[in-house]
Amino acid sequence: MKNLKLTSLDSAERGRTVISVGDVRIGEGFTVIAGPCSVESEVQMIETARKVKEAGADMLRGGAFKPRTSPYSFQGLGIKGLRILEKAKKETGLPIVTEVLDPRDVSWVSEFADVLQIGTRNMQNFSLLKEVGKTNKPVLLKRGMYSTLQEWLNCAEYILAEGNPDVILCERGIRSIETYTRNTLDLAIVPAAKEVSHLPIFVDPSHGTGRLSLIEPMSLASMASGADGIMIEVHCNPNEAICDKEQAMSPQMFSSIMDKLRMLHRAMEQISHNDGVRKLEQVI
Ligand code: PEP
Ligand code: MN
Predict the structure, then answer these.
(1) Exposure winner among 98, 126, 195, 249, fewest CB in 10 A?
(2) pLDDT digits over 131-181, tens only?
């Protein structure tokens, strides 16, 4: 691929990128980010945070600034939402992943966020990319819903070129002819991205499918595809979710997915161990 001076696998001086966020090491093992689509209230956020932590999530998500398709939909609580996230972090110890929409907000949102999220609609907002590239916070860069891998990596390149090496790619589904699912989750992009880039890659099966029933199989498939982690929308009271209710998952369902992910992880370790032994036998 052309012009990937900093993001290509060939350009990696120290192998694949591993990003430390508190005690979490992104790019080593499998990391799970969970939490509601948007921060709605202190009670909602703290309760959800406690439940996802109990189930084994590594990081907490929640939007304080929401990029809504309609200007009349709930736009998020803004600064009030960030203060609530701060409390949820204090309460659970979970690092915060939250979206920033506007280049003018980047420096102060960075004071609350452990990871800055760039949403699909802003993937090619180059002034926003340059601004997050000047911070020292890791950036979760979602794939544009109409973007190719080359275009996506070019956007990651913008961030690295400003001096911030910590970019996490996140596949969240692309637009296709399919209407049954909200988006078409492109899981082949996971091993594809790993073939060309050293950056870690996550999957968001919540926005990727928009259907609660499809999130578990796609979470397991994400792990099987070699993703470094997933991001799932979880709400303490899914029926009341203000935003993305159709895909809002209960903490109970999330906890059951976490159990299955642990089992799959063990099975995958066994497969790679057996692979290693087989290769060794071929050498001997
Ligand atoms: C989100 O994760 O809150 C979100 C808005 O996702 P996307 O940008 O992928 O639509
Ligand atoms: Mn959402």
Answers:
(1) 195
(2) 999 999 999 999 999 999 999 999 999 999 999 999 999 999 999 999 999
* Interatomic CA distance for residues 104 and 111, integer angstroms: 14
The two tokens of residue 284 are 């001997």
Give yes or no for residue 194 CB within 6 A of ligand 1: no
Q: Which amino acid is at 212?
A: L
Cβ distance 128 to 148 under 8 Å? no
CA distance 75 to 69: 10
Is 90 exceeded by the pLDDT of residue 284?
Answer: no
- Three-class secondary structure of residue 284 per DSSP: coil
Torsion angle of alpha carbons 107, 110, 116, 120, nearest 10°?
A: -40
Please say whether the beta carbons of 88 and 49 come within 8 A.
Answer: yes
How many angstroms separate the CA atoms of 279 and 273, rounded?
10
Distance, CA 122 to ligand 1 centroid (Å)?
A: 10
Around ion ligand 2, residues with a beta carbon closer than 5 Å are 37, 244
Pairing between β-strand 115-118 and β-strand 167-171 as defined by DSSP bridges = unpaired
Cα 227 to Cα 201: distance, rounded to the nearest angstrom: 6
* Distance linking the first and last C-alpha atoms of the chain: 37
Burial category of 98 from C-beta neighbours within 10 Å (exposed 0-12, middle 13-18, buried 19 and up) = buried
State the closest ligand 1 atom to the C-alpha of 120, by its place in the atom list counted from 1. 8
Atom 8 in ligand 1: residue holding the nearest Cα = 119
**Which listed ligand is nearest to 182 at the C-alpha?**
1
